[in-house]
Structure of maleylacetoacetate isomerase:
Amino acid sequence: VYRWRCSCLDTMNHPILYSYWRSSCSWRVRIAMNLKEIPYDIKPISLIKSGGEQHCNEYREVNPMEQVPALQIDGHTLIESVAIMHYLEETRPQRPLLPQDVHKRQGARNSRDHLLWHPAPAEPHRAHPCGRGEEEGVGPALDYTRLPGG
């Protein structure tokens, strides 16, 4: 359940999700919030318009990393989709995202981690963790030889 943010709404009681519609990281948070039935307002942040709205001063105050998603909730601003989902799971346990059984929960985490490290091709804004390069349309290649231990 979500509402578009409107100046006439009392947003003090509703979390605000800064999101881009094509961002798989934003999708994860929207799905989690909808499954947990948490009402929220969306503040769209275009990663394309005007060179990327995530780079504007107003949004930099919300998330200095200049990435989506960011979630303002309970008087805090959270960033990073998995950290946001952990927070939601810990603070709103009434509709759990993970199974209670420890083995099933680990299987769900394995699936989540696989999806995290194999992003959809529709998200060309970040380097692919497997090192695919710009020529494949997924952003700059990671040079693992320059990383500590690489």
About this structure: The first strand starts at residue 2 and ends at 4. The first helix runs from residue 24 to 35.
